[in-house]
Amino acid sequence: MARSLFFLFRSLTFSYDFHLLVIDKYDTALKGALGELELAKKDHAEREEASARQLNASRADAERLNGIVTRTIARRDELKAELEASQGVIRELERKNAELESEKASLAASHEREMRRLRDSRILEVTRERGRVEAEMAAKANRRFAKIRSR
Fold first, then answer.
1. Is the CA virtual torsion 99, 102, 105, 106 positive or negative?
2. For 45-95, how does the pLDDT look when each residue is reduced to its tens digit (9 = 90+)?
3. Residue 1 gets which letter from DSSP?
4. Three-state secondary structure call for residue 65
5. 40: which DSSP letter?
6. What is the DSSP letter of 151?
7. CA–CA distance, 34 with 40 (Å, rounded to integer)
């Protein structure tokens, strides 16, 4: 029995040493895993921080671009309104120009008619004057011939 107790104690001691060895290996592996976990957490935190910085930079760029787009759209709308106003002014000026052109053509035609009337009137006046002068010359000639005959 003493011998079996010896083997029992020996096996228990061996088993205890084995357990200590297993626990030591487990503890070493656990410490290594915890160390890797801490490194992974630090790496993750660094990456998360870099991602946050990049996200903030992207958001700032997006806000800046949205501001540019908004200002560009507002400027486009202003220019569109100016264009429409300018086109309205152009249409009004073209309408006035057409009116003035037709008035000019009408005045030119009426001026031409008046010039023709005056020319015709002048020709008629000259013809009448010529007839009057010829009549006076004939009367004067008749008076002179009558004086000559009466002598």
1. negative
2. 999 999 999 999 999 999 999 999 999 999 999 999 999 999 999 999 999
3. -
4. helix
5. H
6. -
7. 9
